[in-house]
């Protein structure tokens, strides 16, 4: 989509004001990003969820800044006209501001991202403010925060009681005050997600957060069932099942190779007779090279 113009944080805020939902999708490589851009996605998240769906890890914790830089850069090549957010991986923004800035610099300069995403609430707001002051847009992320999965006791729904709801509201307002341009709400009850969306002036992007947020984000591999043993998730809608298509295609290829039905004559390249003569001599002219 050569005529497409990448959106920016000012336009995203206007989309919220105008009631225009924001579409967001994860992508981790060149062809995935290219297809997402061609489909008209508003924003691409190069998520540390690549640790699960690309690297095969049980959690996102093993993902490094080098991983994120590599994947962000390849996504940027595939979607040069789309706003790209890159995740700050586990423990890269909880130390000194200088350490956090080094990771941000790499994602922006080497990874070519437009913005970074950080998980957490009030405990990271000082770092968020410093990064924003340095001229880097920050997308917040509260609710279920996968990098803290060991602290929160697994993948649990957030905002199910009044105390937890107030905590999430306080975190959202703190991130807004720190300068975040938007907030991802993951696995948050619909009622609480709606209240937060109405209380803050910045866009909220939901994943498993119901119908009343300002946008939605899904993982590429969930939306397309791009997996060998896909596990159903209540908050995901499947739009295609490419896992089965890929498996069936490869299986057919294997069968064709075993049965010598591939390659066919239309797939081969032929040399002229002088080439055969040089290899086999006159005795080999017209003979089967085997």
TrEMBL record:
<keyword id="KW-0963">Cytoplasm</keyword>
<feature type="binding site">
    <location>
        <begin position="48"/>
        <end position="49"/>
    </location>
    <ligand>
        <name>3-methyl-2-oxobutanoate</name>
    </ligand>
</feature>
<comment type="subunit">
    <text>Homodecamer; pentamer of dimers.</text>
</comment>
<keyword id="KW-0479">Metal-binding</keyword>
<dbReference type="InterPro" id="IPR003700">
    <property type="entry name" value="Pantoate_hydroxy_MeTrfase"/>
</dbReference>
<keyword id="KW-0808">Transferase</keyword>
<dbReference type="GO" id="GO:0005737">
    <property type="term" value="C:cytoplasm"/>
</dbReference>
<feature type="binding site">
    <location>
        <position position="87"/>
    </location>
    <ligand>
        <name>Mg(2+)</name>
    </ligand>
</feature>
<dbReference type="InterPro" id="IPR040442">
    <property type="entry name" value="Pyrv_kinase-like_dom_sf"/>
</dbReference>
<comment type="similarity">
    <text>Belongs to the PanB family.</text>
</comment>
<dbReference type="InterPro" id="IPR015813">
    <property type="entry name" value="Pyrv/PenolPyrv_kinase-like_dom"/>
</dbReference>
<feature type="binding site">
    <location>
        <position position="117"/>
    </location>
    <ligand>
        <name>3-methyl-2-oxobutanoate</name>
    </ligand>
</feature>
<protein>
    <recommendedName>
        <fullName>3-methyl-2-oxobutanoate hydroxymethyltransferase</fullName>
        <ecNumber>2.1.2.11</ecNumber>
    </recommendedName>
</protein>
<keyword id="KW-0460">Magnesium</keyword>
<comment type="function">
    <text>Catalyzes the reversible reaction in which hydroxymethyl group from 5,10-methylenetetrahydrofolate is transferred onto alpha-ketoisovalerate to form ketopantoate.</text>
</comment>
<keyword id="KW-0566">Pantothenate biosynthesis</keyword>
<feature type="binding site">
    <location>
        <position position="48"/>
    </location>
    <ligand>
        <name>Mg(2+)</name>
    </ligand>
</feature>
<dbReference type="Pfam" id="PF02548">
    <property type="entry name" value="Pantoate_transf"/>
</dbReference>
<feature type="binding site">
    <location>
        <position position="119"/>
    </location>
    <ligand>
        <name>Mg(2+)</name>
    </ligand>
</feature>
<dbReference type="GO" id="GO:0003864">
    <property type="term" value="F:3-methyl-2-oxobutanoate hydroxymethyltransferase activity"/>
</dbReference>
<dbReference type="GO" id="GO:0000287">
    <property type="term" value="F:magnesium ion binding"/>
</dbReference>
<feature type="active site" description="Proton acceptor">
    <location>
        <position position="186"/>
    </location>
</feature>
<dbReference type="GO" id="GO:0015940">
    <property type="term" value="P:pantothenate biosynthetic process"/>
</dbReference>
<feature type="binding site">
    <location>
        <position position="87"/>
    </location>
    <ligand>
        <name>3-methyl-2-oxobutanoate</name>
    </ligand>
</feature>
<comment type="pathway">
    <text>Cofactor biosynthesis; (R)-pantothenate biosynthesis; (R)-pantoate from 3-methyl-2-oxobutanoate: step 1/2.</text>
</comment>
